[in-house]
Design a protein that fits this description.
With 220 residues, the chain is mainly β. It has a domain of 148 residues: 2,3-Dihydroxybiphenyl 1,2-Dioxygenase, domain 1. 12% of the residues lie in helices and 36% in strands. The protein contains three helices and eleven strands. The strands form two sheets. It has an eight-stranded mixed beta sheet with strand order 2-3-4-1-5-8-7-6. It has a three-stranded mixed beta sheet with strand order 9-11-10, with no helix packed on it. A hairpin with a 2-residue loop joins strand 2 and strand 3. The longest helix is centred in the middle third of the chain and has 12 residues. The protein is globular and about 45 Å long.
Length: 220
């Protein structure tokens, strides 16, 4: 499935057996996807009577009041951030919303160490490191019985095409992904990226990141 005006992004849905008790942000790996939207408060009204569960209502981000976002849980237990930029934000080059709900521009991975996640993407794919921020991540806070106002260490690693990987440092109680896992995990199981020949990508590859997250690298 793709947004109405997008030719640069798709959601891929894969049917797998449900995992009892699965909750996003309870363990390492991919935990959420962030979509750019036109008007988040209007969208919140529409979703109030939908199959999506509103986990966190629209709220300005703690580190930037020009960004307003809400969080919802989908039918596969996946968490989606729906984010509106009120105006351009220096240092975060986000794409414009071309329709009411547009493409994913950030994918969120959680792990035990923010430094280890940054090191993986920097050394493996030459992704620039980013400064750490202290930010609310309400869905994660609720999973660990913390205040919605609790701040976590996060960093937004810049990719091409105005996209980012958000690396979240999770509490010590977060569960690691199994070292050997031959089935796709629930929720957001895998994220596909375009790679270039300069990065040594000449065939489709699936690899794991520092937090156990699964990446599919597709050569351009």
């Amino acid at each position: 499935m793709a947004p109405a005006t997008a030719d640069d992004f798709v959601f891929r849905f894969i049917e797998t057996p449900a995992e009892p008790g699965y909750r996003a942000f309870g363990r390492h790996g991919w935990n959420a996807a962030e979509l750019i939207v036109a008007r988040v408060d209007v969208l919140a009204e529409r979703l109030a009577s939908s199959p999506f569960e509103i986990v966190a209502p629209p709220m300005d981000l703690s580190f930037c009041p020009d960004i307003r976002a809400m969080q919802v849980r989908g039918p596969g237990g996946e968490i989606l951030y729906l984010t509106e930029f009120k105006k351009p934000v220096p240092g975060l080059d986000a794409p414009p919303a071309r329709c009411e709900v547009d493409r994913t521009f950030i994918v969120i991975a959680g792990g035990a160490s923010l430094e280890a996640m940054q090191d993986f993407y920097a050394t493996r794919f030459a992704v620039p490191r980013a400064p750490a921020l202290e930010s609310r991540v309400q869905t994660m806070a609720l999973e660990f019985g913390l205040s919605r106002e609790h701040r976590f260490r996060i960093a937004a690693l810049p990719l091409g095409g105005r996209c980012y990987i958000e690396a979240d440092e999770m509490p010590a109680a977060a569960q690691p992904l199994p070292a050997e896992q031959y089935e796709l995990p629930p929720g957001i199981a895998i994220v596909s990226f375009l790679g270039t020949s300069q990065a040594g990508m000449d065939s489709i590859r699936c690899i794991r990141g520092a937090a156990g997250e699964m990446l599919e690298i597709i050569p351009r």
